[in-house]
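In the design runs reported in the main text, the only information available to the sequence generator was the tokenized backbone. The following block is the verbatim input for one such run; it is reproduced so that readers can re-run the procedure and compare outputs position by position.
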């Protein structure tokens, strides 16, 4: 599952929960999820349970969920 997470400076980061990667590279370097993975996990859990997440995610054209 891939997500794009927005930062305050209008930059977006790509988070892949299957591959355990983020474009900030913290996850790959430390082996531990970065701070950007949290919103992605919460959104996935909320979607699966039918509840609302406190984070807003938008679909990105050309970015396919796997």
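Verbatim output:
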């Amino acid at each position: 599952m891939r997500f794009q997470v927005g930062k305050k400076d209008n930059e977006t980061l790509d988070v892949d929960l299957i591959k355990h990667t983020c474009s900030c590279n913290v996850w790959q370097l430390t082996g531990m999820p970065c701070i950007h993975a949290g919103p992605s996990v919460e959104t996935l859990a909320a979607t699966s349970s039918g509840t609302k997440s406190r984070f807003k995610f938008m679909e990105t054209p050309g970015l396919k969920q796997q």
